[in-house]
Design brief:
By secondary structure, the protein is an alpha+beta fold. The chain has a single domain, classed as 60s Ribosomal Protein L30, Chain: A. Helix content is 26%, strand content 32%. It has two helices and six strands. Strands 1-2-3-6-4-5 form a six-stranded mixed beta sheet, with helices on one face. Strand 1 and strand 2 form a beta hairpin. Helix 1 runs parallel beside helix 2.
Length: 114
């Protein structure tokens, strides 16, 4: 069975199948904040979605991070490392990308186990 959460015309925020959660790209709701603020918002959104599926950040399998500006990499990592449980780092990639909206500084795509 496939479960879809917050289904819209174009995408859903999360799909769950065979014990795996697949999150759509998560971005900050308040894009007026700097990279640290936007990163905290994105991580909070990830926490909330995973909780709805019965999972959590300790079960991350893979995270893809898209940064508008690689100069934000150190600040992103500072917030990330405070959020991530010790010894639970997932496979991760971070790339510079032009995001869909110019005010977005970071977008994350997550795959996690249930």
């Amino acid at each position: 069975m496939v479960q879809r959460f917050d289904v819209g015309a174009r995408l859903c925020e999360m799909t769950v199948h065979n014990g795996v959660c697949y999150l759509a790209g998560q971005v900050a709701a308040d894009a007026s904040q700097d990279i640290s603020g936007q990163t905290r918002q994105v991580l909070a959104a990830i926490d909330a979605l995973l909780a709805r599926a019965g999972s959590d950040k300790g079960k991350l399998l893979r995270v893809e991070i898209f940064l508008k500006d690689l100069a934000d990499f150190p600040a992103l990592n500072e917030v990330w490392e405070r959020w991530l449980p010790a010894g639970q780092a997932p496979a991760r990639a971070t790339v510079q990308a032009q995001l869909a909206r110019p005010e977005w500084r970071v977008e994350m795509i997550v795959t996690a186990a249930l």
